[in-house]
Write a structure and sequence with these properties.
alpha+beta; globular
């Protein structure tokens, strides 16, 4: 995959994405999420909960290399983001590129 950061930002700007653990969990449990991205150096218990729920729901996950502040910056937000759920990719190729892996 070329640059996951650019794909995430494009999905946030042009698609439908929910940010934060609570909203992410709602999207996963409602079967709306097509892909979940988590900060690999985020809060350990939150990240493990997200990964567990995604595994049960059979939703593809990507670990973003960085902490939650880095993921927030990639999303264009001035706060930390532990995870995000991609509902619609918009102009991003993030769903197509992850399908090839």
């Amino acid at each position: 995959m070329a640059d996951i950061g650019k794909d995430i930002r494009l999905a946030v700007d042009t698609g439908k994405v929910v940010l934060g653990a609570r909203e992410l969990m709602k999207a996963v449990s409602g079967k709306k999420a097509k892909l979940v991205v988590v900060a690999s150096k985020g809060k350990a218990d939150t990240v493990s909960d997200i990964l567990h729920v995604c595994k049960i729901a059979e939703i593809k996950t990507i670990k973003f290399e960085g902490n939650s502040m880095d993921l927030g910056a990639v999303c264009g937000r001035p706060y930390s983001v532990n995870g995000l759920a991609v509902i619609e990719a918009g102009n991003s190729n993030i769903l197509k590129e992850t399908a090839q892996e």
